[in-house]
Amino acid sequence: MRLQAKLTVFSAVSKIIILLVLILVLPTLVNQVALHNADVRLQDKEARMYQIIEEQGIDSFITEETGDAYGSYNLLKEEFISLEEISSGRVHNTIENSLRKVENDIVEYRVLSSTFDLGGKRYLLEIGRSLATIGDNSQALQHYALYFLLAVVLLTVFVDLAFSKILLQPLTTIIKRLQRIEHPTTFTPKKLKTSTDDFLYLNNTINDMMGQIQEAFQKEKEFIGNVSHELLTPVSILQTRLENLLADPDTPEPLLVKLVDNLRTLHRLKSIIQALLLISRIENEQYLKNERVDVPQLVNEVAEEIQERAEAKDISLSVQLTGDFVFIPANHSLLFTMLFNVVNNAIKYNKPSGNITVAGNAVAKGYQLCISDTGVGIAQDQLPHIFSRFKRFHAPDGESHGLGLPIVQTIARFHGVALTVQSELDKGTTFCFTFPQRT
């Protein structure tokens, strides 16, 4: 999972947990708030009642007609106010829940009780509000609070997602740059536009590391090229001298056999040097790509060239091509070598009376060419190393694979051709080349 997705998931999960906790405590919290507001309202009404009594006198409530008590309920029995004369010893100054009988109905109220003295008499003022009304208000508050919390969580999740995307944009830039690297030589150090020190440090570290890799790679290419070039001259001289000895009629018969063996060794050494030199020249871009190559026609040329080798080993070579495809810009000679090496390996490591199939067809934005054989195959643990020029591995018959496949990969990379390999021991190997469509 990507870092941005992890941050977003963490943010969302943490907010959901917080939301669930709030939902659990929300009823209690809102009820307390509703009761507090009800108490404040009752206290406000108490203050207003005292103000009215002070201004108009107690007689405006308690008269001869009402006796020693006054009571008033609103239409829906949601609130009431009562005022009555009590004995001088009683004192009530509380806010509590209390059941009251109103017109044969029992109603639970939140009641504020307050005792005061006036004109030598003691009075009890009670102001009540229905708990059902308070509960309705509490329920409404819970709904609004829940909707608000949900909106806040959703909003913060989207804000966090946008912020994390902006925050991690430099990291995304670094990853995309690294994904575009097809070869160490194609990397170009760039500065990163960000104020985050961690990303700046990461970018600078990658630039320094890639610089060291490029330097080491360049030295390795120069070394291979120079050594290959220097070795080729003395090897050619030795080969010429041995060939002259073979051609000399005075050379003894026993020595001729040894000379032939030495020539084979020199020929193998010369092939290795030439392969290394070819790889070095390709990587140093000493070959031009200025030709139009008809891929189906190129395959037929390779098949025609190698047909005799296949017949000599009793190998059936089948070419199945559909559609036309011209690959540009390209180097015909290098592409010929690339396909020739793969088909030649398919012959070399095939089984007696085996088959080789070269199939090509147009695909989205290009042309795919697959070379399949019924040979000895390659072990899965060796597949990642078959293109390495520095790691030697052997076929099941014990013979080394040499530098043919590193050459194939180097040419494919030089042309931007995608190369994949699938293989299974004792069943065969398939090399697939995907040539990109260019205009």
Automatic annotation (TrEMBL):
<dbReference type="InterPro" id="IPR003661">
    <property type="entry name" value="HisK_dim/P_dom"/>
</dbReference>
<feature type="transmembrane region" description="Helical">
    <location>
        <begin position="7"/>
        <end position="30"/>
    </location>
</feature>
<dbReference type="InterPro" id="IPR036097">
    <property type="entry name" value="HisK_dim/P_sf"/>
</dbReference>
<dbReference type="InterPro" id="IPR004358">
    <property type="entry name" value="Sig_transdc_His_kin-like_C"/>
</dbReference>
<dbReference type="InterPro" id="IPR050428">
    <property type="entry name" value="TCS_sensor_his_kinase"/>
</dbReference>
<keyword id="KW-0812">Transmembrane</keyword>
<protein>
    <recommendedName>
        <fullName>histidine kinase</fullName>
        <ecNumber>2.7.13.3</ecNumber>
    </recommendedName>
</protein>
<dbReference type="InterPro" id="IPR036890">
    <property type="entry name" value="HATPase_C_sf"/>
</dbReference>
<dbReference type="GO" id="GO:0005886">
    <property type="term" value="C:plasma membrane"/>
</dbReference>
<keyword id="KW-0597">Phosphoprotein</keyword>
<dbReference type="InterPro" id="IPR005467">
    <property type="entry name" value="His_kinase_dom"/>
</dbReference>
<keyword id="KW-0808">Transferase</keyword>
<keyword id="KW-1133">Transmembrane helix</keyword>
<feature type="domain" description="Histidine kinase">
    <location>
        <begin position="226"/>
        <end position="439"/>
    </location>
</feature>
<dbReference type="Pfam" id="PF00512">
    <property type="entry name" value="HisKA"/>
</dbReference>
<dbReference type="Pfam" id="PF02518">
    <property type="entry name" value="HATPase_c"/>
</dbReference>
<keyword id="KW-0418">Kinase</keyword>
<feature type="transmembrane region" description="Helical">
    <location>
        <begin position="144"/>
        <end position="168"/>
    </location>
</feature>
<dbReference type="GO" id="GO:0000155">
    <property type="term" value="F:phosphorelay sensor kinase activity"/>
</dbReference>
<keyword id="KW-0472">Membrane</keyword>
<dbReference type="InterPro" id="IPR003594">
    <property type="entry name" value="HATPase_dom"/>
</dbReference>
